[in-house]
Amino acid sequence: xxxxxxxxxxxxxxxxxxxxxxxxxxxxxxxxxxxxxxxxxxxxxxxxxxxxxxxxxxxxxxxxxxxxxxxxxxxxxxxxxxxxxxxxxxxxxxxxxxxxxxxxxxxxxxxxxxxxxxxxxxxxxxxxxxxxxxxxxxxxxxxxxxxxxxxxxxxxxxxxxxxxxxxxxxxxxxxxxxxxxxxxxxxxxxxxxxxxxxxxxxxxxxxxxxxxxxxxxxxxxxxxxxxxxxxxxxxxxxxxxxxxxxxxxxxxxxxxxxxxxxxxxxxxxxxxxxxxxxxxxxxxxxxxxxxxxxxxxxxxxxxxxxxxxxxxxxxxxxxxxxxxxxxxxxxxxxxxxxxxxxxxxxxxxxxxxxxxxxxxxxxxxxxxxxxxxxxxxxxxxxxxxxxxxxxxxxxxxxxxxxxxxxxxxxxxxxxxxxxxxxxxxxxxxxxxxxxxxxxxxxxxxxxxxxxxxxxxxxxxxxxxxxxxxxxxxxxxxxxxxxxxxxxxxxxxxxxxxxxxxxxxxxxxxxxxxxxxxxxxxxxxxxxxxxxxxxxxxxxxxxxxxxxxxxxxxxxxxxxxxxxxxxxxxxxxxxxxxxxxxxxxxxxxxxxxxxxxxxxxxxxxxxxxxxxxxxxxxxxxxxxxxxxxxxxxxxxxxxxx
Length: 640
Known about the structure:
Layout: E1 3-6, E2 29-30, H1 39-75, H2 96-111, H3 121-130, H4 139-152, H5 160-177, H6 182-201, H7 204-216, H8 221-242, H9 258-290, H10 299-313, H11 322-329, H12 335-354, H13 362-383, H14 391-407, H15 410-421, H16 427-444, H17 452-456, H18 469-472, H19 475-478, E3 483-487, H20 492-501, E4 510-514, E5 520-525, H21 526-530, E6 549-552, H22 557-566, E7 571-575, E8 583-588, H23 589-618, H24 627-636
Parallel strand pairs: 2-6, 3-4, 6-7
Antiparallel strand pairs: 1-3, 4-5, 7-8
Helix pairs in contact: 1-4, 1-5, 1-6, 1-8, 2-4, 2-10, 4-5, 5-6, 6-7, 6-8, 7-8, 7-15, 9-12, 9-13, 9-14, 9-16, 10-12, 11-13, 12-13, 13-14, 14-15, 14-16, 15-16
């Protein structure tokens, strides 16, 4: 038997060329480079724009519906004006109103869809991760209706969560109607959610970032383009209804000094600590409700009673409270009044959310975070007046820090406050304070307010988005070379004798087959060669079952791996783009796994270095050669 050893060659750089294929490769499968975008992205973008137009209208209708229910519940009048329940004249009867809303929402959840419970974003994440982004169509109608009832009867929630959930459900519904793939449905769901958030707050960039950080779990042009277009269109819809004014206007602030910036970073870290305990409190209350000896359908009613009791003492805690946020960032509420507002809002919102009713988290978190930031900023001005902090910027930092710490959507938190205030001078304090809160949250909190619920159900939520390792490497980086190949005209008897000899290379499970000129004919496996039905006199080329499947040496490992999975291959030849008939290496499943082994080894080495540094930091008298030598050195120097 004559084996043929091929050494690796070079490849051309730049864009792929169209090589002239030899006779053996005319029908070959070749690993193709994927395109970033294609005509399908244009179709999904058009659908996303349609979803955005509808989400913008739905956001307006939901706002009007909340206003109608609020006016009926607290003022006994027919009006869709978006008003606060704080100025009602119901007296102690106000306790009953949120409880009635809770009863209605409980019935809707039990007999309509349990998916209406909660603030919407975790449920949308769960559909993305587990159900191929297929949201039940009935949620498109039940979620906004239940939220309007809960909020309109005094629930201390923002309207944005239900609108985000409704927009996502609408995007998923459109994706299901148009026979899209799971990835495309996820994009449409995220586009609808981003459009809903934009239509509520006029914050298109932060809506895109929120979709990336909490729903898409990726950053790719084919998903980013439709989501960004949907957010831009939803902004136009919002402008047509309410204009371009900022949601929470702030005016007259000055450029912060370096000392003030340091103060805002410390403030952000402190609010980050508070965000951790706020998240824990919400789920502790939810756990408490789960231990009650009554059906969960009645939990929202009990939560509503607490909301009503708190609302009797602090009326401004009722409803969405967007006016509270505006007053806080404008500096119109401070001192004891601010402390009471934040404290009572926290109690009311955490109990209501823990009870499983329908409502959003963004507005309550911004209220609590903004109030805490303003209080800490005022304290900083008293204790360290030389820092030059501004309570209004401190409130903005508190808003971003609270949401960044609770949700870990850092970029969305920072940009959101910037967009809703139109205050560019707050960018550096927001970035510094938000990052500090994000850092503290990562240290102290395993799951976030968005992920804790679904993690408890056994769902794994990605926490880090990194570039695909297989996309960073190409076939030549891992292919085995030189290659042990078989001659196409050799008899099987000769090859079988060589396999039985146990010489170097004969243990492989697959072999490329070359014709006399060295061109690739195909690949045969060890099983093919040893099949008892094949006589010894038969030639190797006669048992090649199909045209060769090859990868160019500059093909990414992701492309190669996808091809191997699609065609159920354990190995494939690697060829040069300039000479596609000539094999330069072989790539197997084991070679692909070895890439991950390399990554694991690098991670282990990093951990070893960190542990070594920590050990030396604890015992500075030791060097890296070991604890025994360190103790001897310490004794020689008189140390303990």
